UniProtKB/TrEMBL annotation:
UniProt keyword Oxidoreductase present: yes
Top-rank taxon, per record: Bacteria
Species of the source: Novacetimonas hansenii ATCC 23769
A Pfam match: Pyr_redox_3
An example Gene Ontology molecular-function term: monooxygenase activity
Keywords on record: Oxidoreductase
Name the UniProt record assigns to this protein: FAD dependent oxidoreductase
Length: 415
């Protein structure tokens, strides 16, 4: 039997902060639309974060449209439950046309123009489609993981909650980006022996010369820098985020200090074979590069302070508190007492359900400020879609307003 087709001007796929922000502007502009969400609104904050998760950016950067942070700690860092409450408050503030537990399984071009969107046993015809499902669908776990002895517990960072979830014993954390570095600290604070595979992620200080580094960078208009003006241009989208934490008021994550206090640091994990982990000989290089990035950020702040004639306390240069002696020697997992591995090596986007020519040869979507070459087809909420904040609470409102202007054909002011 032919499915009955429903028609609507705009379909939004995904009800994270990006899709909800898009909906907020369309509601304000009185544009009929619907949001389809495979799970529940902003479920990832609840379902894919560990118990002690907190923001790494200060609360004042939480600026969803019409819903700025209103708490009494703008320079603090919301913990998991506070983040969930903030997002739920945003949803309640405007009651979006949301369909939860409604996964979009197919999007194709419609013979009458626009797009054909399949959701369960429903077919929708939309003139505009906004893909706001994010870039973190498929957890990355290497193929050789399946050959590791099943007595060693394995989990991806999105499924880690706390130390008690793991068997007793040492833990191998693979990856030193934001999740890996913070999870390593979380385990260490629970008195677990931790081994950390250090990759090429850069680091940044939490505070410098009397202020949060984010405050300095905001004053320097770093967060207004567009990807077109970034020195790396599109390459900025492939860069790993700097590791730092907002835990307990915020502090640096200095992996050298971790090592001095008992965390085992290793180079990039090359493979695990016969329960022996093999590492690249890049531990010192990766630590030095991370420190160099941090030093460069501080130098840019120093230059800004000098240029603007700002009175600010001075700080001495960072001196490494620990130096590696090798870091690439193989590690026999069971001999080291390792009973668990946490994979913190990221995600891949999953766009297999989109059959619209908006992807390049590497199956990556191609857009300019979220607008693709296919009329009425957009992406929102991806890292560096337009600026650093495009995938975050701080910049998604600006991007959503821009796409709303493309849909309505008129200027849509940012809330």
């Amino acid at each position: 039997m032919t499915q009955q087709e429903k028609t609507i001007p705009v379909v939004i796929v995904g009800a994270g902060q990006a899709g909800l922000s898009m909906s907020w502007y369309l509601c304000r502009e009185k544009v009929e639309h619907i949001i389809f969400e495979a799970k529940t609104a902003c479920h990832s904050w609840d379902d894919e974060r560990w118990d002690n998760f907190c923001l790494v950016t200060p609360n004042w950067q939480c600026a969803l449209p019409g819903h700025p942070y209103q708490g009494n700690d703008p320079h603090g860092f919301m913990v998991k439950n506070e983040i969930i409450d903030y997002v739920r408050g945003f949803v309640a503030s405007f009651n979006p046309p949301l369909r939860e537990h409604s996964a979009v399984t197919s999007i194709t071009r419609h013979e009458a123009g626009g797009y054909r969107v399949v959701v369960g046993d429903e077919v929708w015809h939309a003139g505009h489609v906004v893909i706001a499902s994010g870039a973190y669908q498929d957890a990355v776990i290497p193929g050789y993981a399946s050959a590791i002895d099943p007595s060693i517990f394995q989990i991806h960072s999105q499924d880690y909650r706390n130390a008690s979830q793991l068997p007793q014993g040492a833990v191998l954390v693979v990856g030193s980006g934001q999740s890996g570095a913070q999870i390593a600290e979380d385990l260490f604070l629970e008195n677990r022996k931790v081994h950390l595979c250090v990759g090429s992620a850069p680091r940044v200080s939490r505070f410098y010369r009397g202020r949060d580094v984010v405050d300095w960078l905001a004053d320097m208009h770093f967060y207004d820098l567009t990807v077109d003006n970034h020195p790396l241009r599109d390459g900025a989208r492939d860069k790993t985020n700097h590791y730092v934490t907002g835990r307990n008021g915020g502090h640096d994550l200095d992996l050298r200090r971790f090592a001095r206090e008992g965390v085992g640091l290793h180079g990039t994990l090359a493979t695990i074979r016969d329960e022996v982990a093999h590492f690249a000989p890049d531990l010192k290089e990766n630590l030095d590069d991370a420190d160099r990035t941090n030093a460069d950020i501080k130098k840019s702040i120093d230059a800004y302070i000098a240029r603007e004639g700002i009175s600010a306390p001075t700080e001495t240069d960072y001196v490494p508190v620990w130096e590696p002696d090798g870091g690439n020697m193989p590690l026999a997992l069971k001999a080291a007492g390792i009973t668990a591995i946490i994979w913190c090596i990221g995600f891949r986007p999953n766009y297999r359900w989109i059959d619209v020519p908006v992807f390049n040869g590497a199956n990556k979507p191609v857009w300019r400020r979220g607008v693709t070459d296919m009329p009425g087809f957009y992406f929102l909420g991806l890292p560096w879609l337009h600026t650093w904040g495009s995938g975050r609470f701080s910049g998604v409102s600006r991007d959503a307003a821009w796409l709303a202007s493309q849909i309505t054909g008129k200027d849509v002011p940012i809330a």
